Amino acid sequence: MNIQIERKPIGKIILNRPEVRNALNRETIQDLIHAFSTLGQDPEVRVIILSAQGEKAFCAGADLNEVATLKTVESVRHYFSLMATLIETIHQVSVPVIAATFGYTLAGGMGLAAAADFVIAAEDGYFGLPEVKIGLFPMVVMAPISRLIGPRRTLELALTGRLVKTEEMNQWGFCNAVVPFSEVQRRAMELAEMISLGSPLITRMGKEAWSQAQDLEYHKAVEYLKNMVSLVAMSEDSREGIKAFQEKRPPQWSSTPASR
Fold first, then answer.
1. Does an H or E element contain 15, and which?
2. What span, in angstroms and rounded, lies between the C-alpha atoms of 258 and 260?
3. Rg of the chain over CA atoms, in angstroms?
4. Distances in Å between the alpha carbon of 25 and those of 31, 60, 100, 137?
C-alpha cells in the first residue's frame, strides 16, 4: 500500500513508501487525493494528521523514476496536474490538517507540508526546493510555500536549490513547532486532540472561512467574515457553548448546521 489510513475522530494519512523516501508517483498522488477527500467529508473526522513511514524522509517529492518514463506532453501535464489537485485538495479540505514532518521534506513534499494548516517538524531535518538542480522547477508548490515564507525566500530556494535546516524554516514561520524526532507524532496528536475538543461544526466553518478569506482583498475578507460569524452565532453549537459556559459545564456538541 502506498498510503495507510486511520479514521475517527482523528484521521491519519500515512505515506508508506519509505524505500524511496516516500516519493510521489501517480498512484500515490491519486490515493492521497481520494484519502483527503474521503476523510474530509466524513462527519466523524475532526482533524487529519499527515505523516510518513521511515526515518530518512517525510517526502522527497516527485518519484523521479516515474517522471523519467513520461515521454509525452500529455503524460507530463497529467502528472503535474494531479500534483496540483492534491495540493489544492489538502488546502481546501474542510477539517484542519497537521503535517508531521521529519528528515528530508523536499519539492512536492514541502508543498504537501505547506498546504497543511499546521506543521510539526522534527529537529535535524531539511526542507528545500532542489528541482532546479535536475532541470525542473517547483511551479506547482511555489504558491502555498510563498504564502508562508514570502516570495523572496521562496524564489531563493527555487533558484538555488539549497536545503534549509528545520530551525531556519521555523524562524521563517513555516513550522508551528520543532521537536525531537521521537516527539513528532506525540506533539501532532496532542495538537489534534486539542482541536478536537471544539465543536466539529464550528471547526469546519472556521476552517472554511479562514481558507476563503485568504484569497480575498482585505475589505472583502472583512465583509465575508462578518457574514460568516453571523452563521456561526446562529448555530446550535454556538448556543450550547455559551450556555455551557454560563452553567460551568462541558458543552455537549450537536453540530446541527445553521440554515444558510
1. strand 10-15
2. 6
3. 19
4. 10, 11, 20, 17
Q: Is 8 left (phi over 0), alpha (psi -120 to 50) or beta?
A: left
Is position 260 within any domain? Answer: no
Same domain for 214 and 228:
yes
Cell output for 24 = 510521489
Q: Are residues 91 and 107 in the same domain?
A: yes
Q: 206: number of CA atoms within 13 Å, CB side?
A: 14
Residues 92 and 163 in one domain: yes
Set of cell numbers at residue 159: 533558484
How many CB atoms neighbour CB 173 within 10 A? 11
**218 and 92 together in one domain:** no
- Print the domain residue range for 77: 3-196
Residues 30 and 109 in one domain: yes
pTM, two decimal places = 0.94
Q: What is the pLDDT along the chain (260 residues), one digit of tens a residue?
A: 999 999 889 999 999 999 999 999 999 999 999 999 999 999 999 999 999 999 999 999 999 999 999 999 999 999 999 999 999 999 999 999 999 999 999 999 999 999 999 999 999 999 999 999 999 999 999 999 999 999 999 999 999 999 999 999 999 999 999 999 999 999 999 999 999 999 999 999 999 999 999 989 999 999 999 999 999 999 999 999 999 999 999 999 986 444 43
Examine residue 251 and state whether it is found in any structural domain, yes or no. no
Active site residues per annotation? 131
Q: Supply the DSSP string of 93-152, one letter for each residue.
A: -SS-EEEEE-BEEETHHHHHHHHSSEEEEETT-EEE-GGGGGT---TTTHHHHHHHH-HH
Residue 5, SS3 per DSSP: strand
